[in-house]
Amino acid sequence: MKGLMVKELIEFKKRWIITGIMILVFSIYSITVALPMCLILPPLLSAVVFGSFIHEEQSKWRLYSIVMPYGRKKYVSSKYLAQILSLLFSMVIIAILWVISSVKNGVFDTGLLVILLLSACVVGLIYPLIIFPITMAFSSSTGRLFFLIINGAIGGFSGVAITDDDFINAVSTSKITSILPFIILTVIVAVYLLSWVLSIKIYEKRDL
Amino acid sequence: MNAIEIRNLTKMYKGFSLTDLSLTLPEGCIMGLIGENGAGKSTTIKSILGIVRPDRGEIKIFGEPANNKQKNDIGVVLDEVGIPELFNIHEVNAVMKNSFTNWSEGTFFDYMKRFKLPEKKKFKTFSKGMKMKMGIAVALSHNAKLLILDEPTSGLDPVARDEIVEILNEFTRDESHSILISSHVVSDLEKLCDYIAFMHNGRLMLCEEKDRLLEQYGFINTTEEGIKELDSSAIIGKKITNWGVEALVYRDKIPHSFKVQPVTIEELFVFMVKEEK
After folding, report:
1. Helices (H), A60-179
2. pTM of model > 0.90
3. Is the CB of A68 less than 8 angstroms away from the CB of B84?
4. Is the CB of residue B14 less than 8 Å away from at least one CB of chain A?
5. Are B199 and B205 a contacting pair, CB within 8 Å?
6. Do A63 and B68 touch (CB under 8 A)?
7. DSSP tag of A35
8. Is the Cβ–Cβ distance between B73 and B62 less than 8 Å?
9. Is the pLDDT of residue B165 over 80?
10. Is B36 strand, coil or helix?
C-alpha cells in the first residue's frame, strides 16, 4: 500500500498552493477574530483528499490501481488512511493556532484546546465516513453531491444551534456536557471504522 | 504451464453478455483477441484483471486462481493509461517503485529516453501516443512475465503503432514471456501473434494457431456453377459479387483444379462475422 500512500502525498503536494493559501487565510482569521473558526480546517483538508477521487476518475487511476498488486481493499484503505493523516495535520495546525492565540491573549485554556481537538476529529471524520461509501458504491460526483448536502445540513444546524438560547442553555447546564465531546468522538470513530469496512465490502463487489 | 486459462467465463450486462468463454494461452505465446467494438474483448480482459466480477467461470493465471500477488508478474496496458494527470515521469517512478516488488528504475528511465518522453512535463500534456508509450514502459519495467494489453494501438498513427509492435516483439524474445492482446486493428495482431481468438457478440467464434488458420483457410473466386461443383462442407461462407462468387473455403477440401488464394486474418475475421450475421 506504500505506493498508494506515496501517490496520495504527491497529489496533496500538487494542490499545496491553493490549500496553503486557504489554511493561511483561515488561520489568520482564527487568531485575529475567533479561534473556533480554525475548525474549518479539518473539513477543508478532507475535501482535498476527497478531490483526489474526482481526479482519479478522470484519469482512470481507479482502474489502473486495481491492476497493480494492491487489490480493492488496499485502495479503499489508502483513502481512509489519507483522511486520518489529513486530520492529524489539521490538528497540528489547530494546536499551533491555539498556542499563538494563547500567547496573544495571555490565557492558556487547555480545556479549550481539548475541545477544539475533539471537535476537529468529529468534523474531520464525519464527511469521509458518509461520503466515502457513497463514492465507492457510485461515483465521485454522487459523493460530491452528498458533500454539499452535509455541508448544508451542518451549516444549517450550527446556525440554528448557535442562535438558539434554549439550546445553548440546555447544553451548558446538562450534566453530560463535560463528557459529551468524548461520547461524540467515540461514536464518530466507531462509525468511521464501520464506514471503512462497509466501503471495502461495497468496492470489492462492484464492477469498475 | 499455461499463462492464462479461462473456463466458461460468463458475464451478463443489460443488452450484452459474454457467454461461456473458454480459452488457454500457453506460456511463451502471444494471443490476439480480435473482435469488433462490443464483441467482449475488454470484458474478457477486465475479468482476468479483476476489474469486473464474472457471474460464472474460472480464471487461472500461471496455474493458480487469479490473485493480487500475481499482479507483480503481470504488465497491463488498458486502452486509456490511468496515470494521474498531474504527474511527471519522476513522480510516476516514485509511485511504481513503491508498488511493484520487481520495479527496475533503470529499465523505466531507459524506456523514457528511448521514447523521448519529456522529464518535467505533466502526463496530461502528453499526446495519445506518448501516453500509450508511458503505459507500456510501466508495464515492461517490473519484470513482468505476462503482458495483458487492451487496444494498445487504437487511435495511434501507423509509425507509433509499428514502434509498439516492435517493443512487444522484443518482449517476447524471452521464451517464458507471454502476451494477451486485444485489438480491432487486425493487421497489428497478424504481425505479432502466435494464436488468434475471434470474438463476436460475446462469444468465442474460434481460437487457433495463426499459422494453422492461414494454412487451413483460403479464398476462391469462381462462378455460381463452379461453386456447385464443390462439396458443401468445404465452403465456410460465400459472397456473390458482380464478377462471380467469392468463397472462404477449407483448403484441403478443394480440388486442385481450383486456384486457392491465401487469406489474411482480417479477411477471415470479416468473412466469418458477416456469415454469422
Report:
1. 61-66, 72-105, 110-137, 140-163, 165-173
2. no
3. no
4. no
5. yes
6. no
7. G
8. yes
9. yes
10. coil
